[in-house]
Amino acid sequence: MSSLPLAVRDCSTMLRRNLLHARRYPSLTLNLLLTPVMLLLLFVYIFGDVMSAGMGGGGADRSEYIAYVVPGILLMTIGSTVIGAAVSVATDMSEGIVARFRTMAIHRGSVLVGHVVGSVLQSVASVVLVGAVAVAIGFRSKDATALEWLAALGLLALFALALTWIAVGMGMASPNAEAASNSAMPLILLPLISSAFTPIGAMPGWFQPIAQYQPFTPAIETLRGLLLGTEIGNNGWIAVAWCLGLAVLGYRWSASKFGQDPK
Fold first, then answer.
1. E-assigned strands of the chain?
2. % of the chain at pLDDT higher than 90
3. 214: Cβ–Cβ under 8 A, 6 or more apart, which residues?
């Protein structure tokens, strides 16, 4: 066999390994998935009327706030889910299985590819589940065409790929699973200081640059525009640039850590 089919076979094997781990130990994924679901229910049913009235300047209408908050929650779901990739990689590194893989006649990149592809698939599945909860409590997409839905799914997949590579790098750089989980917490915290829950214009002036110049805000505004028909502006290109930049950074970081000799 040539090198390409062998690499594909090894990557498929590592992907099956990681999916089996996720199926046998679902508690981590479920715990991470619980955070965006609880925030969705909290902001809709506890703060929904007040937030909607404050944003619209009129009467309370929870349905409008559901439409506003769901795109941010979907991207927050990705940030929450990929923490599992950081923990899984750190566990493999600390338990010595990666050192064992280095001595085997397998494609070196297959170990990382298995983690990344497995995490992206889990992120997409988590987004679907959270999206189903959103639809159940009243979220409806307004006049989104099939092309816009396809673009929204592509953005979610690309964002998941970018954050997964960053999470894998965090896992590689962490001494154990607990440290990896802690180092990946900004992937959950960043959406909280973005435009996910309130418009940037309603924030204090000194805080607005923090919310504006980070990867989640342009991605949220792009997804919101695709699903709800609001103005996207240049957020689409900025979101794609963030995704590509983070993916390249995470890949180079992960590959560099993986290529280092174990201490």
1. none
2. 35
3. 190, 193, 194
